[in-house]
Structures are given as C-alpha cells and as structure tokens.
Amino acid sequence: MTSPRIAPLPIDEWDDETRTALGGRYLNIFGTLAHHPKLLKRWLVFGNHVLAKSTLSGRDRELLILRTGWNARSVSEGGQHVVIGRAAGITDDEITRIADGPDAPGWSANEARLLRAADELHADQCVGDATFTGLAEHYDEQQLIDIVFTVGQYMLVSMALNSFGVERDDAATGVPFPTR
Fold first, then answer.
1. Percent of the chain with pLDDT strictly greater than 90
2. Tell me, what's the pLDDT at 130?
3. Which of 36, 4, 177 is nearest to 98 (CA)?
4. 99-121 in b/e burial notation, b at 16+ Cβ within 10 A?
5. What whole-number distance in Å separates Cα of residue 160 and Cα of residue 162?
6. Mean pLDDT over all residues of the chain?
7. Residue 15 backbone zone (phi > 0: left; psi -120 to 50: alpha; other: beta)
8. Residue 102 to residue 39: CA distance in whole angstroms
9. CA distances from residue 91 to 97, 143, 159, 161 in whole angstroms, order as listed
10. Which long-range contacts link 51-58 to residues 24+ away (Cβ below 8 Å)?
C-alpha cells in the first residue's frame, strides 16, 4: 500500500474524550482509530493491559509480539515493537531470527515455545498440547492466559494496521524488521 486507506485524524480534530484518553500521545494507529472514539477508548484499556500490566516479562511479551507481527506481515507493527523489544533486552540478532521462527538456533527452549505458541495461534487459533504443556512448566495460569491474549491483541492490531494502511510512526521509520 502506498498511502493510508483511512487517513489518521490530526490531534486538533479529535473529540475531547479521545484527547483525554490519550493524554496528548500520538501514534498513527491512534489517529486512525480516532475516527471511532468509542472503540478506541475501550480498546485502549485492553491494549494497555497487554502492553503494560501483563504478568509476562517485557522480553517474553515482545518476543510474542514480534513473532505475531512477522506472521501477520505487519511491517508497521513490527517496526514499532523492534524499538520496544530492544528496550526489553532483545538484541538485533534475535530480532533478525524472529523471521526464522522457533526452530532457529539460539533460542532457549522456553523462548522457542513462546514463538511456537505464536505460530500455532496464528495457524490454528489454538496452542497445541505439546507447546501448552511445555509452557505450563514455566508459566502460571495468569501468564498462560496473557500469552494467548498477547498474541490475539497483536494479531488484531496487525490486521487493523495492514487493512487500514496505517503508516509507520517516525520513531519506527527505518527500523529494520525481518521481511523474509
């Protein structure tokens, strides 16, 4: 896509409720979803849980999000989370390996299970028995729930970004994201 299908609204065109909910933060996805303020407000609550209040470590969460973005071929989402993933301790080599998936050399057994869970959720909408059993050896029930909801949230976001033609934000422009 060469241009947005739904152009983001500039902040000065947001309603008061949207401006208040976002507190002046601007990302292209927010500007795009500002066309639907009630949905945006409710989605922010869920999205903020997954991003900031999840029981997963930042590194585990970002591995799931990066693999989900790659599976969805969402360069916009991937670029944004390369920046966040680096801050969570994911190296550029690991970011490159995201494209190679759970069987690539270098992942710990647990990291490979996380990436496999993202793949299985993408392909089958269900974490397979072997993967779930392996994850349950390391994570408690809340964390297992957060794994599934993290992938689901970022698949939803990736679908929206891809479908609406949301462009990368300036902070993520030029950030490498695997495309192979």
1. 79
2. 98
3. 177
4. bebbeeeebeeebbbbbbbbbbb
5. 5
6. 92
7. beta
8. 34
9. 10, 23, 26, 25
10. 54/146, 54/150, 55/140, 55/142, 55/143, 55/146, 56/139, 56/143, 56/146, 56/147, 56/150, 57/88, 58/87, 58/88, 58/89
Higher pLDDT: 82 or 175? It is: 82
Structure tokens at 45: 């609550």
- Give the pLDDT band of residue 76 (cuts 50, 70, 90): confident
Tokens representing 170 are 């300036």
Extract the tokens encoding 140.
């408690």
- Token pair 């790659």 is found at 70
For residue 24, the model assigns a pLDDT of 81
What is each CA distance from 119 to 94, 100, 126, in whole angstroms? 17, 11, 9
Q: Where are the alpha helices (DSSP H) in the chain?
A: 16-22, 28-33, 37-48, 58-71, 75-87, 92-97, 109-124, 129-136, 141-164
Which residue bears the tokens 């989900």? 68
The residue-averaged pLDDT of 97-110 equals 96
Euclidean distance between CA atoms 34 and 31, whole angstroms: 5
